[in-house]
Amino acid sequence: xxxxxxxxxxxxxxxxxxxxxxxxxxxxxxxxxxxxxxxxxxxxxxxxxxxxxxxxxxxxxxxxxxxxxxxxxxxxxxxxxxxxxxxxxxxxxxxxxxxxxxxxxxxxxxxxxxxxxxxxxxxxxxxxxxxxxxxxxxxxxxxxxxxxxxxxxxxxxxxxxxxxxxxxxxxxxxxxxxxxxxxxxxxxxxxxxxxxxxxxxxxxxxxxxxxxxxxxxxxxxxxxxxxxxxxxxxxxxxxxxxxxxxxxxxxxxxxxxxxxxxxxxxxxxxxxxxxxxxxxxxxxxxxxxxxxxxxxxxxxxxxxxxxxxxxxxxxxxxxxxxxxxxxxxxxxxxxxxxxxxxxxxxxxxxxxxxxxxxxxxxxxxxxxxxxxxxxxxxxxxxxxxxxxxxxxxxxxxxx
Length: 399
Ligand SMILES: [Zn+2]
Fold this sequence. Notes:
CATH class of the largest domain: Alpha Beta
Helix content: 40-55%
Bound molecules: zinc ion
Distance between the termini: 17 Å
Strand content: 15-25%
Structural class: alpha/beta
Strand order of the largest sheet: 5-4-3-6-10
Radius of gyration: 23 Å
């Protein structure tokens, strides 16, 4: 369900001023009242009044100022971590990941269930999702009554208005699933449904960058390749939330078949699946450490490249070179301030990372290169679930 339709959501802000204060504190804590005044331009009295209300409701806390030992610390307002919590849950063909996050955006529990969901029926998957939510609620100290809501991060095409997952190409029976209604009924909690790409860029934006970059691309790299986009401070998800399919950009005349049915797609040439395939085909004729692996995965190839295995390095360098060129094309079109790559890239080692950076910078227009910052994300796991949790908490902060 889209955020504005979550009628029964537990709202922390009662009006626009409180929303503004909570969002500023979220991105800048600890911050003083004067700090908030200078960022909003609103009168000091109005900010003070609203802040006092948020403090009295224990939504905000204020620390410092009473410490008599050592230098007097600056007073600072923060979101109260003990006010409550939310749950983000991401499901896909390979399993379910969940995160409980307190109201100060700090993860307080995580769980991973590796299970093949590609061919399971809807009822079974929905039951597994509910069981995962209930189990993570048991793991944390806060009572269940303090749970403000749940975000379901879905691998498919989403119908916002109906709260339905319409279709997921990676899960056979996952079509027309009434995710929101079913989960709300079972869990007795407000449920927000969102797509993976939206959730992931939100995770890095909130938890790593403190919402500080107005124009951001987040490049997801794994079995698939996708691109989350934030432009002029707005997340771009497109019609049907289908924007960002970077993996299906045709980058080569190769006849390599992609899972989308096309040929020569970036994903078919440069994803983890693709490099595993290329390595498996190359092992026989090469003296590679990879030949000892029983079932070769893309991560094995990345890690072998980091260990300077010649076959792996050649394959990974070529893949990352292609990735760099493709991302440069998107940079030239959208002009982000920052490109943030999935932390998985680090597994390939510093030399391979340098190949990616060089290839991107070489292909980007000079005008864009000057203002571009390229980084690798520090978030290493549960990114979709974290983003889901951040999304529903964002919704609670909005009046
Ligand atoms: Zn494709």
